Amino acid sequence: MRNSWKIRILIGLAIVAFAFFKKCANTEVNEYTGKEQVISMDPEQEIAIGLQSAPQMAKEYGGLHLDNSLQAYVDQVGAKLVDNTIARETPYIYEFHLLADEQTVNAFALPGGQIFITYALYSKLSSEDQLAGVLGHEIGHVIGRHSAERIANSEFWQTVAQGANVGADAGGLVAGIGQNVLLGNGREDELESDNLGVRFMIKAGYNPREMITVMQLLKAAAGPNRAPEFKSTHPDPDNRIEKIEEAIVKYGG
């Protein structure tokens, strides 16, 4: 019985060691942001995941909006941001989608360049600059490779949890720790995308202060009962506004 327990410990340690070895092997520097990241896929795989997931994501938000003129406008602003920034130098395929959902105020990006904004959010925007702020932020998520990084971190913690489960029945605890790490990374991702969005707006000739207006709109849409920052994957809107102000000063907007 004791030997069996020792073998389990050794196997568990081996699995955990493999997870850390794989994490180190997959660590690289993002050439567009300079950030060191753990990435387990190449850009072509990111593009494939985004293209494969896009139809289902659109379906969950009521499908694509039927007004072609509104979609063309979103495409135009998105293209202006891509063509005038480092986004054009990346291997990603940028496609912008206006979703029909009139209730959910949201915008998001899939790996590889698939970017979405709901009509509920679009209808609250009052200028092209504000739309550019939303789309620029989402382009930041793509270039920041945030989805790919979360996937790699998730794989890492799943492997560690598996090793802990084999060695000491502690997989649930370790998986919980991994979830907390992912939540923390989420806040950093949002702030990095805000920073990149400011840079993209300035490069494309938009007023970056309109991103602050977007943050105020999102804050109002969330209402007074929004979750406190420590319980959320997103930074508090007031903290984001402060960082956006700093970025505007830094990049001369």
Automatic annotation (TrEMBL):
Record-level GO cellular component terms: membrane
Cofactor(s) the protein needs: Zn(2+)
Keyword check for Zinc: yes
UniProt keyword annotations, A-Z: Hydrolase, Metal-binding, Metalloprotease, Protease, Zinc
Keyword Hydrolase: yes
A GO biological process held by the record: proteolysis involved in protein catabolic process
Domain Peptidase M48, chain residue ranges per copy: 70-247
GO molecular function, one term: metalloendopeptidase activity
One Pfam family matching this protein: Peptidase_M48
Binding note for cofactor: Binds 1 zinc ion per subunit.
InterPro entries: Mito/Outer_Membr_Metalloprot (IPR051156), Peptidase_M48 (IPR001915)
Domain of life per record: Bacteria
Name listed for the protein in its UniProt record: Peptidase M48
Organism in which the protein naturally occurs: Constantimarinum furrinae
